[in-house]
Structure formats: C-alpha cells, structure tokens
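Pilot study result, target chain (135 residues):
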Amino acid sequence: MGWHQNTYSIAEKRRVANNYHEENNEKKTSIAEFARRVQIPTTTLKGWLSMCAGPPPVRKKTPAMYPQMDVELYGWVLDLRGPGKRLEVRNGDIKEKARDVVVRDFGDTEFKASDCWCAMNDVKLRCTDMFIECE
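Predicted structure:
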C-alpha cells in the first residue's frame, strides 16, 4: 500500500487546536497524549497550536482598502454557514454585505465590489468555513 497524507482545512485545524486548549484548561492534557487520541502527529498538532485566530492572512500586492470589512465579512459568512443554517453564500450576497459595511463604517457610497473580487473572497471564506469541508 502507498503512503497517504491527510489534508485538513484551516477551520478543521483551528477546531482541533481549540479542542486541545479547552481540554488542557480542564485537565492538563499533554500535546502528545491529545495527538495520539485524535490520531494526528505530535509535530503537526504543535504547528496547528501556534496558528493565530481570526481570518486567515491574505497575501496581496497592495494592502486592503478596508481591512475591517474583510474581518466582518469573514464572521458574517461563518454565521450564515453555521449548523442548521443556509450553506450557500452567493457573490451577490457578498457584494451587498461588503457595500453595506463600507457605507456604514466609512461613508464611501461609491464602493463597488467586482465579480472577480467576490469570487476571490468567496473562495477564501469557503475554504476557512468551520462547518463545511473545502471542496
């Protein structure tokens, strides 16, 4: 049989790290013990534990015009995709929410999000969703 490597979404990595921190606060579990129980190599789990919280960093050539909007959109999409809630967020939904946030927080009534911008943000948000595996 060949070698097989598991792949995990960022959301899954954060969920496992959060579970470790919760359990460690309750009953001081070692990283090695927890890694054995969840069947993840200890070195991999250590890397996951050092990940920062919040939306994943986005590498851009130019800085975001409204970085607070990205953070709010991230939380909004996660809320929409929670257990027992709607699973799909369309480009039009992202455009509308982004415009609402920019107008509300910055007063920029000229802001328009392109379909390309929405698609890039939707991929970023879809792949970091806490409840749905990345396609």
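One observation from the pilot: The two ends are 26 Å apart (CA to CA). A full batch analysis is planned for the follow-on phase.
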